[in-house]
């Protein structure tokens, strides 16, 4: 016959995560049924004290039976309606209790201390269960019910409250508030501990996923962790652009260098080339020896034409970037000229997860893969060879040279191949890329990628170098 301040129903099974079972002093919230029993006992105690002091009519003792039955009635009704709508049901039941307690307050003639105690007890429950929203409507219903009963029965003639009734009222509401507040506090501690553990597990999951992402291409990793793709054995046919590259001269270099130094050089090369690949949106498939396999168009695609253009643009950028790396290696004492050679093919391949249920590899297979690998093997150092299919997709923006036809296993007729020269915008007097290399001198200039703040320092360095060459020429 009173409100409750718990946050779970008596028949509601605990769904606390197993990670919370180790929380120190984990005390569940005060069940609804127990809260109502405690609240009803406080109200019944107030009524008994009021009858003993003679301020309440003895006919009100029938409310003691109602107070004993009320918690069982609410529990039965809640179960009958269904636990799936529990939050809304609990609020409705509490509003009904506001009407009931308001009527009891009216029946007692608005005796100050008992009325205040019963109202305070119920408003405390409303605040905990439903916040200010439920407290506001609960107060309205409580006041309306009390006012209606007072209008029918009238006010008490003596507003003074005897000592026994006052003590029982204050002790009853005090015990109720303290007990429910204690359980609410313990529940808050559990929730705080749960939040801390969830945050810790989240940080561990992020750290683990970051480590696992090193073994997958960023596009594949993102599609898995965002739920866009399931981790299961499945493949599909899709038109992609496939890229292969390797380092010409790497075998000779491996015989000259120590394994540790060779490993460092190779990792540096892979890191630089991977940055270029990711810049253009390529999906890095694998590293094999000094070779790299990359494809464009999956998991995400910008269209066949744009995928092919991005693939060839990446290859051109890699070729230019290799010249910078070669200068850096030369400064480190590596004299063997290392050149990159590349092959690109576009067409339908089978892409997806291959392998076993417990060990998968996200890769591609098909004759276009074999063709790209074959083109890479045929390419000269510093050369980019593309198939006719790729050429047809990029020819409007990239200049290519016809290199004739080759015979490739898996193709019924000879395949036309083309050599990538450069972007059409970079050909002629307005080109942004300039390179020059002699003994004792090497220059690589890509004016399109130079920012304004670096342009002045580059000009000063070039002028200083030119002045020194002129002075040496004059001294001769």
From TrEMBL:
Pfam families assigned: Guanylate_cyc, MASE2
Transmembrane parts of this sequence: 37-56, 62-82, 94-113, 133-156, 163-183
SUPFAM superfamilies membership: Nucleotide cyclase
UniProt region (Disordered), positions on chain: 1-25
UniProt KW keywords: Membrane, Transmembrane, Transmembrane helix
PANTHER family in the record: ADENYLATE CYCLASE, TERMINAL-DIFFERENTIATION SPECIFIC-RELATED, BLL7624 PROTEIN
Name of this protein: Protein CyaB
Residue span, Guanylate cyclase domain: 241-376
């Amino acid at each position: 016959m009173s409100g409750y301040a718990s946050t779970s129903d008596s028949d509601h099974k605990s769904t606390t995560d197993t990670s919370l079972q180790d929380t120190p002093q984990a005390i569940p919230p005060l069940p609804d049924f127990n809260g109502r029993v405690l609240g009803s006992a406080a109200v019944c105690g107030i009524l008994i004290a009021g009858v003993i002091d003679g301020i309440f009519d003895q006919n009100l003792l029938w409310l003691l039976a109602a107070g004993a039955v009320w918690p069982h009635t609410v529990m039965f009704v809640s179960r009958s309606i269904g636990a799936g709508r529990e939050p809304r049901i609990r609020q409705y039941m509490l509003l009904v209790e506001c009407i009931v307690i308001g009527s009891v307050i009216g029946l007692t003639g608005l005796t100050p201390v008992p009325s205040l105690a019963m109202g305070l007890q119920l408003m405390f429950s409303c605040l905990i269960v439903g916040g200010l929203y439920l407290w506001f409507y609960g107060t309205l219903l409580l006041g309306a019910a009390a006012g209606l009963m007072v209008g029918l029965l009238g006010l008490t003639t003596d507003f003074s409250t005897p000592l026994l009734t006052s003590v029982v009222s204050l002790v009853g509401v005090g015990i109720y508030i303290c007990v429910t507040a204690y359980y609410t506090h313990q529940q808050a501690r559990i929730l705080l501990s749960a939040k801390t553990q969830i945050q810790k597990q989240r940080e561990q999951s992020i750290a683990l996923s970051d480590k696992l992402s090193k073994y997958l291409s960023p596009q594949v990793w993102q599609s898995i962790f965002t739920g866009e793709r399931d981790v299961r054995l499945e493949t599909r046919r899709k038109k992609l652009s496939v890229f292969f590259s390797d380092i010409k001269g790497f075998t000779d270099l491996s015989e000259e260098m120590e394994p540790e130094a060779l490993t460092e050089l190779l990792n540096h090369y892979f890191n630089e080339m991977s940055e270029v690949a990711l810049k253009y949106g390529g999906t890095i498939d694998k590293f094999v020896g000094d070779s790299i396999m990359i494809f464009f168009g999956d998991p995400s695609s910008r269209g066949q034409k744009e995928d092919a253009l991005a693939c060839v643009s990446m290859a051109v950028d890699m070729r230019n970037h290799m010249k910078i790396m070669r200068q850096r290696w030369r400064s480190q004492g590596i004299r063997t000229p290392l050149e990159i050679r590349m092959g690109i093919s576009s067409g339908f391949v089978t892409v997806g997860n291959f392998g076993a249920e417990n060990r998968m590899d996200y890769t591609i297979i098909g004759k276009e893969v074999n063709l790209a690998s074959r083109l890479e093997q045929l390419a000269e150092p510093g050369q980019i060879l593309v198939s006719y299919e790729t050429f047809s997709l990029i020819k409007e923006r990239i200049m290519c040279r016809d290199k004739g036809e080759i015979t490739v296993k898996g193709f019924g007729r000879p395949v036309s191949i083309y050599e990538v020269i450069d972007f059409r915008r970079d050909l002629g007097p307005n080109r942004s890329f300039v390179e020059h290399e002699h003994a004792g001198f090497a220059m690589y200039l890509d004016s399109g990628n130079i920012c304004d703040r670096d342009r002045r320092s580059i000009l000063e360095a070039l002028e200083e170098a030119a002045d020194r060459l002129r002075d040496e020429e004059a001294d001769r």
